[in-house]
């Protein structure tokens, strides 16, 4: 069976963000928001694998894409306010970027197949 890299990377993101949140001192609301958005990326990609239709799968991927963008925004905020260092920021941002590009390609492919 082929590896589902989108699922693997999204699980890595959610796990990494959870571990990050356990080790940084920033406002609890910020921690809640970044945990929520990163875990939503993973949850929606996981759910998309069992979508009821291509339209359902597309919807889940589009939600995951929005949540991925939100996660990138929270990472930027954490970096800008010295909550995380540059190396941590870039590492997580790059993972988000990889997931985002894969989601964009997946959405495009699904839309084409639904025509």
Give me some keywords for this one.
82% helix; 115 residues; de novo design (two linked rop proteins); mainly alpha; elongated; single chain; 4 helices
Written account of the structure:
This protein is mainly α and 115 residues long. It has helices spanning 5-22, 28-48, 54-80, 86-113. It has one domain (5-11, 29-113): de novo design (two linked rop proteins) (Up-down Bundle). The radius of gyration is 15 Å and the shape is elongated.
Architecture blueprint of SSEs:
Layout: H1 5-22, H2 28-48, H3 54-80, H4 86-113
| Mean pLDDT over all positions | 96
Instruction: State the CATH class.
Output: Mainly Alpha
Instruction: List the uncertain runs.
Output: none
Q: What fold name stands as the CATH topology?
A: de novo design (two linked rop proteins)
Characterize this entry briefly.
By secondary structure, this protein is mainly α. It is 82% helix and 0% strand. It has a single domain, classed as 23S rRNA-intervening sequence (de novo design (two linked rop proteins), Up-down Bundle), CATH 1.20.1440.60.
